[in-house]
Design a protein that fits this description.
By secondary structure, the chain is mainly alpha-helical. The protein has two domains: about 45 residues; about 45 residues. Helices cover about 75% and strands about 10% of the residues. The protein is built from three helices and two strands. Strands 1-2 form a two-stranded antiparallel sheet. It is elongated.
Length: about 120
């Protein structure tokens, strides 16, 4: 509940700032993609300033996320390898545990039969 309240207290002012920015910057801005621009530039288009800044912000978040994801690939690969090693080790441990239990049962059975041969009760038939 507190998390929702804190989120609302943070997101509502940010949303209000974005709306105020968009309303205050509706004038079109010409974007020229031709560095050797003649008058008028060959590759140019007009967009509202707030739209341009929001697009640039979204692209920055996407590019930053992709860059962070690519940098972390080494650790994700290592984590997958270690998880596979752990799974193999657990399987090996379980196999060895079963073998030890089987060996202990066989030894107990062998000791029981040796004791039965070595010691015969006089009343036994």
């Amino acid at each position: 509940m507190i998390r929702k309240i804190v989120t609302a207290l943070i997101l509502l002012p940010i949303a209000a700032l974005i709306v105020m920015f968009a309303v205050g910057n509706r004038a079109p801005v010409t974007i020229a993609l031709d560095p050797m621009a003649a008058q008028p530039p060959m590759f140019a288009f007009s967009v509202p300033l707030f739209l341009l800044l929001l697009i640039v912000l979204i692209l920055g978040v996407i590019i930053g996320g992709v860059a962070a994801w690519m940098r972390q690939s080494r650790w994700r690969r290592r984590a997958r390898r270690l998880a596979a090693e752990l799974k193999a080790s657990r399987g090996e441990t379980e196999t060895l545990r079963r073998q030890m239990e089987a060996n202990a049962a066989a030894q107990a059975q062998a000791q029981g039969s040796i004791a039965a041969i070595a010691y015969r009760h006089p009343n036994a038939a």
